[in-house]
Amino acid sequence: xxLVREDFARRAARAGxxxxxxxxxxxAPTYHCAVSAILTISLILIVYGAVSGPLDRRGITSAMxxxxxxxAVGTSGLGWxxxxxxxxxxxxxxxxxxxxxxxxxxARLDLRSLRHDLGWPSRLLLIGLPLTMVxxxxxxxxxxxxxxxxxxxxxxxxxxxxxxALGQRVxxxxxxxxxxxxxxxxxxxxxxxxxxxxxxxxxxIAAASLKGxxxxxxxxxxxxxxxxxxxxxxxxxxxxxxILREAQRREWLQGHWRxxxxxxxxxxxxxxxxxxxxxxxxxxxxxxMAFGRASGEHGLRVTYFTEETGSLLxxxxxxxxxxxxVGAARPAVTWHVVLYAVLSxxxxxMLPVAIAMIGRGVRLQTIAFMGWFxxxxxxxxxxxxLVVERGVPEASTLLATVVVTVAMSVFLHGFTSxxxxxxxxxxxETHTEAHPQAPxxxxxxxxxxxxxxxxxxxxSLQEASEGSRG
Length: 470
Prior knowledge:
Strands 1-2 form a two-stranded antiparallel sheet. The chain is mostly helical. The protein has one domain (93-316, 334-469): Up-down Bundle (Na+/H+ antiporter like fold), CATH 1.20.1530. The termini are far apart. The chain has helices at 2-14, 31-57, 62-73, 88-108, 119-143, 149-158, 168-172, 178-207, 214-249, 257-276, 280-295, 300-329, 335-345, 347-356, 364-372, 378-390, 395-434, 455-469, and strands at 20-21, 27-28. β1 (20-21) and β2 (27-28) form a beta hairpin.
């Protein structure tokens, strides 16, 4: 990664900002550069927010705009953003964005109420996800002939999970059958959390940072990272949920503090796990489940602030991705990298989905639709930054592959969402007219989506607003 650091420093210097050496060997921005970056990001968010509605109606997603604008103002463009990809600020923003969204996603999915409709999601998670990792390993060994098995395993874990935000447009569209929307929503809401333990194990093995053979590495990592992550998430999540429930029962809780408490639980679970030497992402994911179960709350009246905070940090991450990651990864981009990215978005995703759906009577059109709409996003970006931070062998190739895959996913899935939904809807209407009992036509309960308020939430959010003014 030394070449990446030197390339970034040259680009920043040409842009008029000369970063100083960081304590970790990277580059740290001057105060002027940091303030300039904050101003640039703020203006981008303001302008995009003002035109977000018309753009969304035309099928142009926020990620597409933010990545493109980020690239234009970054080190490869105008040079207004020049904070290093390895900087502590970039790492903390992306990590907290993923932690908050992991927490809010697992908290909003009330699996008890969905337990009778989890046939398709469970197949995608329990069969499709492991097979995606296996397919990713195979693709890595074929496309990168000199890549070790451990590195191929790591790369597959970095790109196996799908992004709930990038797939939101498809999940929100009622032209898509409820059973398909439910399967994609539950899968994307849970698979990034399920992928974290595999990523942690793969990263430690690839970096050869653990003593002993692979079995001892797996066991040691499970105890330290996964174990403490689970413990912190369960304890903080259950404790926070019970406190919230009791405070509401006694009417001690002032309106807007319900939201602040939830954010505190998410942050507390993440921080507790990191302090204990565990994975903050596992803690956030498990903590959200435990909090939702203990509090009995799954709506925006408790998760709104946490969801919005995560979404804000995710938006900043997309800007940084375009401004910093694309330029930093560009020197390592080869035809091998591009080929793997194409395979990751197609065969590596679609074949496991097809296998997972064997025996369910699902038509090829539905399998192709569900297989295609598995976009890669925030989790893959965070995993890439962690790999760079750990100094894993072949980190430049891994970073370039993740950046190319995610960039292709942002634009390809964004541009195809509207026409592919329309095509699939036309086929579905014709198919179900001839086959009313088709599996795709079976009704399914679709979970509350991100930012979607229920009837109960509206009153609570109004109460919170009034309480904050008081």
